[in-house]
Fold this sequence. Notes:
Elements: E1 8-10, E2 16-18, H1 22-26, H2 31-39, H3 54-60, H4 132-142
Antiparallel strand pairs: 1-2
Protein name: SWIM-type domain-containing protein
GO molecular function: zinc ion binding
Keywords: Metal-binding, Zinc, Zinc-finger
Amino acid sequence: MSSRSFRVDLVDNKNCICTCGKTIIYHIPCPHVVSCISELRQSHYNYVSQYYSLDNYKMTYADPFHNIPDRSTWAQHDPSSGIHPLLPPNFRRRSGRPRTNRFRNTMDEGISQSNRKCGACGIVGNNKATCPTRLVLSFKFFI
């Protein structure tokens, strides 16, 4: 469970705003909005953007797709006419393992570690390295 709270504003039957920001980015209700709408016993389908409607989906693929012409009809590379060859980008790869581009979400939140007990004193909230009683005990041994 997440310990964060989010504010949900249901403006009208078509618009909703959540402080998590997912409704604005994806144009579909986030889980917080769906939870609020289900409490009101309404359908969350009313809050999905028109981008995802069946009519807009059909209009996306209504125009024909143009095939790439045969390679013999392509223009030749001629710098005098302004047609330059398409070259790969001029950069070098970094050494080592590439960095991942993973977007974290609510499932990646870890369980809070505050319920662990200290191995030396048994008190919740510290460990052996930071145990205040252990520091007192070690000081007595030096005396």
